[in-house]
Write a structure and sequence with these properties.
Blueprint (H helix, E strand, L loop, with lengths): L3 E6 L1 H5 L3 H10 L3 E5 L6 H7 L9 H8 L5 E6 L3 H9 L12 H5 L8 E3 L3 H11 L7
The protein binds adenosine-3',5'-cyclic-monophosphate.
The site of adenosine-3',5'-cyclic-monophosphate has 8 residues, from loops.
């Protein structure tokens, strides 16, 4: 499964009512949704997902933000999924995101940045299995 990536529509975008527009944007960019659900993570779940950032100064704020409301993890499929999706969502900091990207359109700040995208095929597989069992990925 090297043609998959894992995304999360984050609590800011869900709370602002942008979920539908963001899903439309993702489909229009040529991705197929292989799995999707809405969840509200607790601290252990959000901390586990962002474990690689545990030593970063922004870790506690990131976990507080990701547990502040519901979010929507999805497994997406497309050729070259990881790189193409990162181009679709734009830079982590929306101030640096290109015109027309999801973060340029819907994000407020580097923390409340609307959406997550895996940064490698290996992390895409790890992140997809963090939220979904094999039976849930179609
Ligand atoms: P994401 O792609 O989900 O991966 C890690 C997240 O940490 C990132 O998006 C940002 O939302 C968040 N974050 C908060 N502060 C920073 C920062 N200073 N640098 C990078 N990421 C940050």
């Amino acid at each position: 499964m090297s043609n998959i990536t894992l995304t999360i529509i984050k609590p800011d975008a869900v709370g602002n009512g942008f979920s539908g527009k963001i899903i439309d944007h993702i489909l229009a960019a040529g991705f197929k949704i292989k799995a999707m659900k809405m969840i509200h993570m607790n601290e252990r779940e959000a901390g586990g997902f962002y474990d690689v950032h545990r030593e970063r100064p922004f870790f506690n704020d990131l976990v507080a933000f990701m547990t502040s409301g519901p979010c929507i993890p999805m497994v997406l499929e497309k050729d070259n999924a990881v790189a193409d999706f990162r181009a679709t969502i734009g830079a982590t900091n929306p101030k640096e995101a290109a015109e027309g990207t999801v973060r340029k359109l819907y994000a407020q700040s580097i923390e409340a940045n609307a959406i997550h995208g895996s940064d490698s095929d290996e992390n895409a597989r790890r992140e997809a299995s963090y939220f979904f069992s094999e039976l849930e990925i179609f």
